[in-house]
Each structure stands twice: as C-alpha cells, then as structure tokens.
Specification:
A hairpin with a 7-residue loop joins strand 2 and strand 3. 36% of the residues lie in helices and 23% in strands. It contains 2 helices and 4 strands; from the N terminus they run H-E-H-E-E-E. The chain has 172 residues and is of the alpha+beta class.
Length: 172
C-alpha cells in the first residue's frame, strides 16, 4: 500500500531555509547601512576639514593685509604640533579659531566622539617637504561613530577621519 505522505520527514525544511536566508539578508543590509553611514560621515568630515583649513589660511592672509605672513603677524597663530580647537567659539581671536568656527558650523567640534585639530606654520609644510609656502595650515577632523549592525560582529565603533591642507603663497 502506497504511503499518503509523499515527503515523509522533510516537513519544515522550508522554514529552516527561510530563517537562514533571512539572517544572511539582514546581515548584508546591516553591513550596507553601517558602511553607508560611515561614508556619509566621512564626506561630512572632509567638508568640515576643507572649510576649516581654507578659513584659517584666508584669515591669516587677511590679517597680514595680503603681504608676507609669519608667526609674529597679529592674529596669526603657528602650531608646530597638532593642537585641538577650543569649544564654544563665537568670535574668533585668530586665524585658527576662525578655522575652528568653520568646523563647528559644519557640525564638528572638539568634544565627545569628535576631534578637530590644526597644525600651521611657515616654510615647508609637513605634508609637502621641500615645497616652501608662505603660510600653511593642516586641519584634521576625526569622529568615532557607533555601529548599529556591525556591533554584533565585535565592531562597536568606526573611526572616520579627514584631512585638508592649504596655504598662502609667499608675497613677491
């Protein structure tokens, strides 16, 4: 006599396979969300670094009246090592604070998970040895962003960073 059940003990396999496939799909979607958010924050950090470096260099140029800039020029600051921005700047007292204000306007402050630093000087910039620039500024913006889905895999945060360097040419 033939059996009524054609598949025997194979009942429920669809549910198991569907559950496994769903876990893989959610994992892939989570990874895409985390990477997409990190990419977005990286672009925002780069915009803030670009604006901050350009603002600091332009403020130095304006302080020198378009002439030669040196570290003794009023309202021009030179930092041989990376120096963090002060928080809560509303009226900049020097060119670096002007850059800090622009980073702050773009959503990056030197607090919490974010860090905004500057390095500046005259002569050869550390990023361009051998090239003499009238006055150079390097702005760095970093942020630790929490991971939503990758935290399950052991990565609770991701570090995004951006760097911008600019300078003013020497007066002729």
């Amino acid at each position: 006599m033939p059996s009524k059940h054609k598949f025997g003990n194979e009942r429920g396999q669809t549910a198991v396979m569907f559950t496994i496939a769903l876990l893989v799909i959610f994992g892939a979607v989570g990874l895409v969300v985390d990477i997409g958010w990190a990419y977005y924050r990286k672009q925002a950090a780069q915009s803030a670094a670009d604006a901050a470096a350009m603002s600091a260099a332009l403020a130095a140029y304006a302080s020198a009246g378009g002439g030669s800039i040196n570290c003794a020029t009023p309202h021009v600051v030179c930092y041989a090592t990376e120096t963090g921005c002060a928080t809560g700047i509303t009226t900049p007292a020097n060119n670096i604070e002007s850059g800090c204000l622009y980073a702050q306007t773009n959503g990056f402050t030197n607090s919490g998970n974010q860090r905004v630093t500057f390095q500046s000087g005259v002569g050869a910039a550390p990023s361009a040895p051998g090239v003499t620039i009238g006055y150079w500024v390097v702005a760095r913006v970093t942020e630790r962003i929490p991971q939503l889905f990758s935290a399950v895999l052991g990565n609770p945060t991701a570090l995004v960073s951006a760097r911008a360097a600019t300078g003013t040419r020497q007066a002729s």
